[in-house]
Structures are given as C-alpha cells and as structure tokens.
Amino acid sequence: MLREYLGDNAGNSPWTIRMSPLSGRGVFASRDLNPGDVVFRDVPLVLGPRSGSSSPPICVGCHTMGTSTLEACSHGCGLPVCSTACETAPHHLAECQLLQRLGRTEWSMHLLKTVTPLRCLLLPAREKQLLLCLQAHYHPQHGFEQVEFLRGQAAFSPADERFLVQACCVLDANAFETVTPNGSSIRGLFPLAALMNHQCTPNTNYVYDEKNRMVVRAAVHIPAGTEITDSYTPLLWATLARRTRLEATKHFLCSCPRCEDPQEMGARLDALKCARESCSGFLLSTDPLRATSKWRCEVCGLLMPARQVVRIHNTLSGLLSILGSKDPEKIRMVLQKNSEVLPACNQIAVEMKSSMLWLYGHCEGYIWPELSDTILAYKEALCREMLQLVETLRAGQCRLRGLYLYELHCTLAEKARRDGQDISQEAITAIQEAARIFQDDVVAPTDVWRRLQDATNK
Prior knowledge:
Number of domains: 4
Number of helices: 17
Helix content: 25-40%
Distance between the termini: 50 Å
Structural class: alpha+beta
Strand content: 5-15%
Shape: globular
Radius of gyration: 24 Å
Number of strands: 16
Strand order of the largest sheet: 1-2-12-9
Largest sheet: 4 strands, mixed
C-alpha cells in the first residue's frame, strides 16, 4: 500500500518494511546507504492545524499563521481564512461543505483544531485504509476531546465517529510537526515516516521541501539490512528528559544504547555537580534505565537518591525561562551566575549556549557588524563546542550539525572581513557541508545558497 501510495510499485527505493526488534514494524535499508543519500520522499496523507493548547491560529486554505488577517469563511463553516482564494482552496472545499450547515459568522478556534481529523474522514477510501494500518494511541489524553467537540457541532454516523476517534489517535501517535514554505507550523501524517522507530541518536535526518514532502536522508553510513530510525525527542536532551517525555507522549521507555549508558556516549548531558564542596566530580545515574536508581559521584563515590536528583533537575530547569529573552548577553549572565552549580555539559547549560549561538549575529543590537571581537570569538567557541557535542553523540549529518556549521561559517566570514583577509578554507568547507545537509529544506537559513556561491567563487 505504501509503495502504491508513493508511486514506487517497482520497489526501486532503498527501503523495505518488516517486523522490528525495536517495536512492531520498522523501515529497513534494502541496500547500503551513505551520508546524504535519500532514503525516501514521503507525501503527507493529510496536513492541517496542530491541536495543542498553545498552537497559533492559521488559515485553513494556505496555512498562514496570524490572527490579524483571518476572517470567518463566508460560507458559514466556522473556519478561518485569510482571503477569498483560500475559501475556495481545493483541500478546504469538502470540509467547508460538511460544516456549512453550522451557519457560523465568526470562526472558532475549537473548531479549527478539529480540521486535521476531519480531513482524514474526507480522504479517498484507499488512503483511509492506509491510515487505519498505522499504530494508534488510545490513552485518555489522545484525540477524544476533538471528537467530543465535533459531535456537538455536526451530525456524524456512528461509523464516522469511530473513524474520527481512530484518526485522532493515529495522528497523536504518528503526526509530525512540519513547517510550510511560508513558515507556518502545522502537523502532517506521513505514512512511511510513521513507521520509523525511535532511537535517541537516529541514523537519518529529515527536512520538508517546497511541496510539503518529507525528505529523509541518511545521516551516517547505513549498511543494508539496518533499521532506519528517527528520534522522537530533541537530540540534545538528556536521558532523564528524553525518557520522561517518551513515556508521557509515546507510552514507552527507550532502552537504546545511548539511554543505557550513564555517560551518554561521553556527552554527559544529565550530569550534576557533586554535593560535596571539596569534590570536583559529577553525579551520574548508576542505572539510567531504572528511574529509582541512585546517582553516584564519579570521583568521591557520594550516592544521591533519585528523588533528590529529580528535584535538582526540576529546579535547574527553571533557568530555561531566560530563553524567552532576545538578549544573548542576559542569557550569558545567567549561565555564568549559575556555573558553580550547573556543569557546562548539562542539558540546561547546552540549551542556553545554543540559544546564544542562534541570537548572536541575528538579533537587534547584536547583528554581525555590532558584535565586539570578544563576542565574535565567544560565538566561534560556542559553534565549535556544539559541533563537538553533535560529533560525540555520533549524529552524523543531522540538521543541527548543518545549523552549527552555517553559524561557524558566518562567524569565520565576519572575522575575515574585519581582518581584510580572504575567507578561510575552513569557512568554505563549513558552508559546503551545511548546504549539502540543507538540500530540499524549505526552512533552511535564507542566505545559505548566496553564502555558498560567494565562498566558492573566491
């Protein structure tokens, strides 16, 4: 069904589906893949608004975000559009006709969140059958609120209601947050990508192209017969945070090689400073796969109960509230102020450093010509530190590596400009690799290709 849907009836693509030792079915390489090779291009069964409480309103026609241009569809369906053209967008017409009898003159945010499952209901029969093949989460927090709201808005048959519940549960288990060419955040159900199982250091990298397709590439060398994996959590989250999120949202506890290693392959993102003032060691879990296991200092052997460690991590997480600031120097001050209790390798410190890295050179008051030489050198050090962290985690040509390489290139190019020198070979190599990683990426930094051309023409 997947090959038929994706137009690969000859089976020429380098993937196959079979039962996985990780969980259920999985996607496997049918031939050797090198970093950068395309594994598959997946076409979404449906695209539509996200259902989270903090998800912004979007136009159901073009998926543009923002309330200032949104008005209720004039046909009375109760959904927001930003133009007359969007009222007649092909993917909106069927849902509009289904809801027109509501006769609404104002658009409803609650109704907007039901659009994606409604679009599942309106799929052709063969595509609905494919959707029903996908795993679904039936836990209480998944999907039912949207169906309950729809039940009060329009009349559905019992069979349609059952399908809507199933669609919501399938979406919650499998949908990806995707970004449209206009920068809006929506969710998409990609049926082949949905079968990729999780590993905390995956062997693939994916982006979205201008046609809203998911393009999945090998991030590392993948021998034939190896399972193709994705990560359901951010790469730079620590083990405790990753496993907590996976249990809450995906209902499993990961036990991959990275999770079972207290050192996290050398990244030590969970590490805490020893409670003994005279000790310079770090506390790490004695058994990361057991939530109740004690934590031990690697130097003095001090043991700390898991409950106390969780409280410390929760307290430190409060420091992340500073990430809402658009002033990187404020973030830097918070990081320095807490350096006595927060290891430089800890996830909280890493998130602060990443945030500063994105801001220096790009935000008001800190654009490239305004950066002091000291800050420019600090940004270069941050780029190198983050690149080393990605390498430590063996994540290969992941999107984060592309972003860090891009920022390193920009920093080295600015230093060369100030020194009146030609751009270095390291800067050229960085932007060349970043461009390879950003192939097909509709939300890649806007000047990547110009910088690549400028660097390679010199």
